[in-house]
Amino acid sequence: MGQYTATQRKNVRILLVGDAGVGKTSLILSLVSEEYPEEVPPRAEEITIPANVTPEQVPTSIVDFSAVEQTEEALAVEINKAHVVCIVYAVDDDDSLDRITSHWLPLVRAKCNPSLDGEGDAEAEAEGDAQCEPVRRPIVLVGNKIDLIDYSTMDSVLAIMEDYPEIESCVECSAKTLHNISEMFYYAQKAVLHPTSPLYMMEEQELTSACKKSLVRIFKICDIDGDNLLNDYELNLFQRRCFNTPLQPQILDEVKAVIQKNVPDGIYNDAVTLKGFLFLHCLFIQRGRNETTWAVLRRFGYNDQLEMCQEYLRPPLKIPPGSSTELSHRGQQFLIAVFERYDRDGDGALSPEEHKMLFSTCPAAPWSYSTDIRKSCPINETTGWVTLHGWLCRWTLMTLIDVVKTMEYLAYLGFNVHENDSQLAAIHVTRERRIDLAKRQSSRSVYKCHVIGPKGSGKTGMCRGFLVEDMHKLIGKEFKTNVVHCINSVQVYGQEKHLILRDIDVRHALDPLQPQEVNCDVACLVFDSSNPRSFEYVARIYIKYYAESKIPVMIVGTKCDMDERRQDYLMQPSEFCEKYKLLPPHLFSLKTNKKELYTKLATMAAFPRFQAAWILFYKHRLVQLWESAHLRQFGLMTEDPKLWWKAGLGVAAATMLGFIVLKTISAAGAHSR
């Protein structure tokens, strides 16, 4: 997969404009032929310089404009197709210099109309930057014929630059002597690939707010130990990640010395502070080394508008129908490292303040701390704070139901940089469900269980009970927050699996369910055993949606601590389950504080066509058979070894019988399918 860096433009288009006779055409011809042309046509043909001969390794088109041969409408089209406009004046002609502000700069501004834009800004529009702000092309001011004077016009030009922030740079050159010809086109190319205006405000001599915000995020991501400083180790990692080369100790000392000299609090304990980091980039830009800051920004996913690239946030992920998405081992390890970095007090939980700081590199937290993560995942029951286990559970939930959002936030948190790879390395796409069904065993580690039943049936309490150690604490509690999902881990035959419970209300028995409400790994149909009209809801749902499906189903009767009422339906729950070959209704109550229900649900999801419910049921029956047929015969407290030997033979016989029964059931099930 490799590391991802936000890409710059794949080509550069330069337009030269200016008064007649200033030498626009001569500049182009001198660059191409490397000699001054004796005869100059009114206008040079468009030329393209191959990437391998340009400093930035980007193919560059150079376009000439002639007022003699072209109309003003044609000029408008060319301005909007161009990435950068070079306004050429003659250094020995004051009128051509004055017309920069009186004519050319206002003209270029007026003609920069997105609706006329051709190829020039198609990439920018794709990024979504066509907003209310005016579109302006970067400008390079070019003073030609420097060979004719012995003074400079730079003072006058610098004054113009202060009033027009789109002017990126200025240069004096000579088409006749070839002085600064290559530099002029390099500055034009640089104005497109490494523009100054998004980074720096000339008038204030300060970084722009967008640039500061981006660099602050980068600083936080690189601050591995979370002490608000970049030590030598962290600076070296930063250097390697951005420039693929180590930072030599001598150069590092020189950089620190420069920071210390200009920003007294830029260095602390021989490490670089945030102020020092921002100053360093400000210094790069002031010295014309924009490309250094841009290299850092692009490595961390920023585009030319200092927004996170969509390709960086959302790398393409192919998910076949019937497959699901989970966190890979690398994804889990990265999230554990992030958690531990921001768990400042080392108590194994994130306080609200620590949680807020953790997501300070993101536009906002992906969930609400008080009404979402604390209600959907396991927490520290003393403080109410999110534990490491709960943290991983919440990310597991988001990865299953919204993997694109997971990838976005992994990028915001710096996965791409720390892992030197795209977020795809943090995601595992499971095999298709049809393969799981064919093999009668799921390879997944995350299962989705839809808990469906009428309002007031106790299903929300059942879901919340999955998150706590002592379910007695939930008795009598009113669940006001509308949290749909609850997630925790369970053991299935010695392997850790995550089970997600989705709470789905059915207000009326005939209410239709949407496909996304039906499809899941295992369905849990819940009725209130103390309400005589409750079972009808789940019976109708099963017959309509699940009787002919391959989705395992368990029926649960809640509030079993209360008086069980006869259900007003054609069949009682146990008769219904027997008819449809389902496991007998599982009776559940928060007061019993028993959690085997969740393990059963996860087991049924893990073995979707192996009749897991029947296996559990018959195992229970075999144990009863073993107890009644043998232990009672020989006595529970006997110490006679011969009697225990006979008991062992009886157990073996019962076990063998059990395997035969199970094999028969499985074969019968396969035959019926």
TrEMBL record:
All residue ranges annotated as the Miro domain in the record:
9-194, 444-607
Q: What is its main location?
A: mitochondrion
- SMART domains in UniProt: RAB, RAS, RHO
Record's bilayer topology term: Single-pass type IV membrane protein
Q: Where are the transmembrane segments?
A: 643-665
Name one cellular component (GO) term.
mitochondrial outer membrane
- Name one molecular function that GO assigns to this entry: GTP binding
Listed Gene3D superfamilies: EF-hand (1.10.238.10), P-loop containing nucleotide triphosphate hydrolases (3.40.50.300)
Q: Which CDD domains match?
A: Miro1 (cd01893), Miro2 (cd01892)
The answer to whether keyword Amino-acid biosynthesis applies is no
Q: Which UniProt keywords apply?
A: Calcium, GTP-binding, Hydrolase, Membrane, Metal-binding, Mitochondrion, Mitochondrion outer membrane, Nucleotide-binding, Repeat, Transmembrane, Transmembrane helix
Q: Which domain of life is it from?
A: Eukaryota
Q: Which family does the similarity line name?
A: Belongs to the mitochondrial Rho GTPase family.
Q: State the name under which the record lists this protein.
A: Mitochondrial Rho GTPase
The species this protein was found in: Drosophila gunungcola (fruit fly)
